[in-house]
Amino acid sequence: MASTAIRLLAACGLALAAAGAPHAQPAWPAKPVRVVVAFPPGGIVDNVARQLQPRLQAALGQPVIIDNRGGAGGTVASAEVARSAPDGHTLLMVFDSYATYPLVYPKLSFDIAKDLQPVTQIASNPLVLVVNPKVPAQDFKSFVGLLKSQPGRLNYASVGPGSSNHLTAELFKARTGTFVTHIPYRGGGPAQQDLLGGQVEMMFLSAVLAQPHVKAGKLRALAQTGAQRVPAYADTPTVAESGYHGFEVNSWVGLLAPAGTPRPVVDRLQAEVRKVVTDPAFDQRLREQGLSGIASTPEQFAAALRTEQDKWTRLVRERGLSLE
Hints:
- Belongs to the UPF0065 (bug) family.
- Keywords: Signal.
- This protein has eleven helices and ten strands.
- By secondary structure, it is α/β, with parallel strands linked by helices.
- It folds into two domains: 162 residues, D-Maltodextrin-Binding Protein, domain 2, CATH 3.40.190.150; 108 residues, D-Maltodextrin-Binding Protein, domain 2, CATH 3.40.190.
- 43% of the residues are buried.
- The N terminus is likely disordered.
């Protein structure tokens, strides 16, 4: 009788284990992790991804593959990842323009609020108001005075309608009561080339991208858009310090996953990224480039996205901006 009872208990245990098996989370990662970078090689997003790659790879114990998929401001890559299996093996790394996709591309094939889920913001950097050296203004105040004395005569570059360069410049115009003509380009390379050549006079450029040109004297930095100065631009005041309180814009790089990715996977990813970003050596490397590590939680990242969307949607409506 005792042996029969033992066999029955064992059978029950196997049945319960089998019943629970479909709900158990498989080990992750079980294969290489592909990080789809929404822009071509050489930009800020790609730069951050490649700095993160070896450390994340060591932590996860699987190859981490960087897959650059540029096109349509990052929406091509985003749409691809949105359609991917939500198993944590395909991820998306984006720029701050992600928050304005619905404004710029009203016919998106995916919903940024429903088809992709935030994992973490990785790093941020302010934009820097830079001018070609031929512009006579030496500081922010004199530059605003110059613009007011010559409305519409100077031009500013952006990488396209709805980009952070474009919207930040429009916010600047609204706050300072100035008018500068918008010259949109099909990418950062051509925009910077014309800025350096003097075909356009100003641009709100990422602190990381502006740094070598400012150091070389090819561009003049007049203000930075963060809440406080970053070490790489210690001598450049913020726009708020220059008298326009509450003016704050930061460019950022973030990591997302397809909607439905298991929460344990998302939490593990966020935790591993946080370990890297908060490592003193890695943090110092970021700071030298003008970047600041973030490593926010998924909830913090989601809240930041909503704030960004609200801010820029309000600006677009108030200014009557065309993003086509």
